[in-house]
């Protein structure tokens, strides 16, 4: 089975040839001699889920619209981004700080999390009647 076939089979509650394994490490870590064994395992055995349609769980199970807005950009130093999840129970905001020269790196600093106050957590908790139902046909692109 290919990685895609393995993931789609498992996601449709059927038995794949083995459990799908997604494992990756950053490019800088791949260069370290200590990571040679794990890099070999990733390259030879781990599944690559890139390009496989993801399950649309929404934001904590709620339908949501995601957007980003650059709120500060100090050239050569950092960029701050406001990330917004718009849901039926309100908007949830997070702020991340990205440092030059690696603005697109997955390594950034969270200045504010989506659920930073108890009231927002309660909104999610009491919204169970609004949660999405997993639809195999949508999630798997069918």
Tell me briefly what this model is.
By secondary structure, the protein is α+β, with helices and mostly antiparallel strands.
Class from secondary-structure proportions: alpha+beta
Mean pLDDT: 79
Number of strands: 4
Gap from first CA to last CA: 19 Å
Q: What is the number of helical segments per DSSP (H or I, 4+ residues)?
A: 5
Order of helices and strands: HHHEEEEHH
Integer tally of domains: 2
Roughly how much helix do the residues carry, as a percent range? 10-25%
Spans of at least 5 consecutive residues whose pLDDT stays below 50 are none
The fraction of residues assigned to DSSP E strands is 15-25%
Strand order of the largest sheet: 1-2-3-4
Radius of gyration, in Å, reads 19 Å
Describe the main β-sheet briefly: 4 strands, antiparallel
Identify the overall geometry: flat
Question: How would you characterize the overall build of this protein?
Answer:
This protein is flat. Helix content is 24%, strand content 24%. It folds into 2 domains: 3-44, no CATH class; 65-137, no CATH class. The chain has 142 residues and is an alpha+beta fold. The model has no long low-confidence stretch (mean pLDDT 79). It has 5 helices and 4 strands; from the N terminus they run αααββββαα. The two termini are 19 Å apart. A 4-stranded antiparallel sheet has the order 1-2-3-4, with no helix packed on it. Strand 1 and strand 2 (78-87) form a beta hairpin.
């Amino acid at each position: 089975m290919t990685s895609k076939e393995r993931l789609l089979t498992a996601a449709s509650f059927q038995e794949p040839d083995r459990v799908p394994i997604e494992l990756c490490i950053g490019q800088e870590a791949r260069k370290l001699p200590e990571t040679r064994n794990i890099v070999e395992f990733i390259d030879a055995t781990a599944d690559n889920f890139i390009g496989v349609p993801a399950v649309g769980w929404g934001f904590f199970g709620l339908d949501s619209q995601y957007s980003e807005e650059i709120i500060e950009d100090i050239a050569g130093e950092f960029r701050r981004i406001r990330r917004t999840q718009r849901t039926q129970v309100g908007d949830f905001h997070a702020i991340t700080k990205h440092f030059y020269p690696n603005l697109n790196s997955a390594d950034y600093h969270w200045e504010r999390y989506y659920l930073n106050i108890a009231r927002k957590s309660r909104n999610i908790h009491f919204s169970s009647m609004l949660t999405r139902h997993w639809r195999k046909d949508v999630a798997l692109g069918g």
